[in-house]
Specification:
The chain is of the alpha+beta class. It has one domain: Cyclic Phosphodiesterase, Chain: A. A hairpin with a 6-residue loop joins β8 and β9.
Length: 191
């Protein structure tokens, strides 16, 4: 069994800004920061999956490659589930959000045929920290000051089916398969 998910990885060039945010928020309470190399946007969490099902899952996801690549920008710092009860601190998505929602719905649609449930509460974001406890007034002020923070953008040229191996040091992610999108300048796949 393996923990699996489908994600858009965060490019190296945007990690510096995300690390700066992590450096500022880590003093607000007890939290586990996401390792910079592990920051990503989860489009669908599959949970524990028998590795023998990866072929079935990748076949179902092949149609995702019919999407065209697109620009995505990161903007704003927020929390889940709400400011009164914080469990996750994240950076949001601005430009490209509609496209992300459409692609996530398509992933949901094709994976229902493999027996996975739909994700009706999807909200595009990049997780920065998982919170145990936090100073709500300090974090609240930071969120207020940074709700419109612009962090740059990048071209999304595909999504990854990922495996997460858990250890005492935290998760290690590996790519099972990348589903490349068509480039905006041709009908050929990118990369």
């Amino acid at each position: 069994m393996a923990r699996a998910f489908i994600a858009v990885p965060c490019p190296e060039e945007l990690r510096k800004g995300l690390i700066e945010i992590q450096d500022k928020i880590k003093g607000f309470g007890k939290m586990r920061l996401v390792e910079p190399e592990n920051i990503h946007m989860t489009l669908k969490f599959l949970g524990e999956v028998d590795e023998r099902r990866f072929g079935e899952i990748t076949n179902a996801l092949d149609s995702v490659s019919e999407n065209q690549g697109f620009e995505l920008s990161l903007k704003g710092v927020g929390v889940f589930p709400n400011k009164s009860y914080v469990r996750v601190i994240w950076v949001g998505v601005d430009n490209g959000q509609d496209t992300v929602m459409r692609i996530q719905k398509r992933i949901d649609d094709v994976l229902v045929s493999c027996g996975f449930n739909r994700d009706n509460r999807f909200h595009p974001h990049f997780t920065l920290a998982r919170v145990k406890s936090v100073d709500k007034s300090k974090l609240g002020k930071y969120l207020e000051d940074n709700s419109g923070l612009e962090l740059g953008g990048f071209y999304v040229n595909g999504v990854d089916l990922m495996e997460s191996l858990l250890s005492p040091k935290g998760p290690t992610y590996s790519v099972i398969k990348t589903f490349k999108f068509f480039s905006r300048t041709s009908n050929k796949h990118t990369r």
